[in-house]
Amino acid sequence: MEPVYPAAPLEAPKGSAELQAAPAEHQQLLPPAPPSYDQATSISAETTAPGTADPKPATTTTTHHTVVVVPTSPYGPEPMDVQCPHCHNYARTRVSYKPNSRTHLIALLLCLFQLYCCVCLPYCISSCMNTNHYCGMCDRYLGTYDRK
């Protein structure tokens, strides 16, 4: 079966110098090419809100080891205004508190010091627990602020 397309590119007829000059003028009239996928999906420092971290982990390679730095959560201990990645609405997050190992350790220490009436306090104080953030509009999970 023979190929459908010609083997050599088509040439312009001789004496058509204005046809050859037209592509250069045409290129000037065209808008710039759109950004590549990597450029469009990367977050620049100017577009990042203050206090938020870059969601991509930074990788540093040394001669012997590879160090991966995982950014912290952009969410804080208080409700905050964000654009939900699920419903794309701007809304204040709804927070709920979840006990962590620090909460249980404080309760254990209170038991060891025989302060049984105070054991429930770490489970009532929000600063002793992690903060889970949910979208205020669609109620989907967005992230956690970990207490250290």
UniProtKB/TrEMBL annotation:
Major subcellular location class: membrane
Low complexity bias (residue ranges): 47-60
Annotated coiled-coil segments of the chain: none
Location(s), subcellular: Endosome membrane; Late endosome membrane; Lysosome membrane
Region (Disordered): 28-60
Keyword Transmembrane helix: yes
Domain LITAF: 64-147
Superkingdom field: Eukaryota
SMART domains per record: LITAF
InterPro entries according to UniProt: LITAF (IPR006629), LITAF_fam (IPR037519)
Topology in membrane: Peripheral membrane protein
Pfam families given in the database record: zf-LITAF-like (PF10601)
UniProt keywords, alphabetically: Membrane, Metal-binding, Transmembrane, Transmembrane helix, Zinc
Protein name: LITAF domain-containing protein
Species, as recorded: Drosophila rhopaloa
